[in-house]
Design brief:
Layout: E1 15-22, E2 25-32, E3 37-45, E4 49-58, E5 62-70, E6 73-80, E7 91-97, E8 106-107, E9 114-115, E10 122-128, E11 131-140, E12 143-156, E13 159-168, E14 176-184, E15 189-195
Antiparallel strand pairs: 1-2, 2-3, 3-4, 5-6, 6-7, 7-8, 7-9, 10-11, 11-12, 12-13, 14-15
Length: 196
């Protein structure tokens, strides 16, 4: 356990620190929606020393970006706000590249993959036995984090689809009110929750 501190030293809001490995390095894509960009950071010394590599995208209203490699292709899924109210909960966009660090990200022909406020916003990735699962956040009326859904990601060459595996509700404790992030692999699993 380490004390809380602002590791990235940004002047705007940061959340959803999605971490992934590429070319023997550890990288992070935090949510920086307020800055209207998707930023890439590299870890110099875990857990507290990170340096900005680049802006992957600028002038984009995006939240909760995830990046993973499947079939030799790097995939990015992020949720964007294109509606007049500026809600970034429905449009799941997808980009691909041959190298997550130095490659150019190109929007997938089927993007947006989803346009649904109940399942469009990412809530993490789960890895298990070579399979990758997307977690989506399910909002409720005036209730951020009503539940999550787990979706198996199916990739055949360049086609991508999802199959629902299960829902996860915040009913695992008497005082738990909300849950909206699940992340994990074969070794570690982490989630967040809000108490009543």
């Amino acid at each position: 356990v380490t004390k809380y501190e602002d590791l990235l030293k940004l002047t705007t809001h940061q959340s959803f620190p999605f971490i992934f490995e590429c070319d023997t390095g550890l990288y992070m894509v935090p949510e920086t929606r307020e800055s209207r960009n998707i930023q890439l950071f590299k870890c110099r010394k875990f857990p507290a020393d990170w340096v900005k590599v680049k802006d992957i995208f600028t002038d984009i209203d995006a939240v909760d970006t995830v990046i993973f490699n499947k079939g030799g292709i790097w995939w990015m899924m992020t949720t964007t706000a294109d509606d007049p109210l500026g809600k970034a909960d429905s449009k799941l966009r997808c980009f691909t590249t041959d190298n997550a660090i130095s490659g150019d990200w190109v929007e997938h022909p089927a993007s947006p993959l989803l346009n649904d406020p109940l399942i469009g916003r990412n809530g993490g990735l789960l890895y298990n036995w070579g399979e990758i699962y997307r977690v989506s956040q399910t909002p409720g009326f005036q209730h951020y984090g009503k539940s999550c859904c787990i979706w198996k990601i199916n990739i055949e060459e360049y086609d991508i689809s999802f199959n629902k595996v299960q829902s996860v509700h915040p009913n695992f404790g008497n005082k738990v009110r909300s849950i909206h992030h699940l992340h994990g692999n074969e070794d570690l699993f982490t989630f967040d929750y809000e108490l009543k």
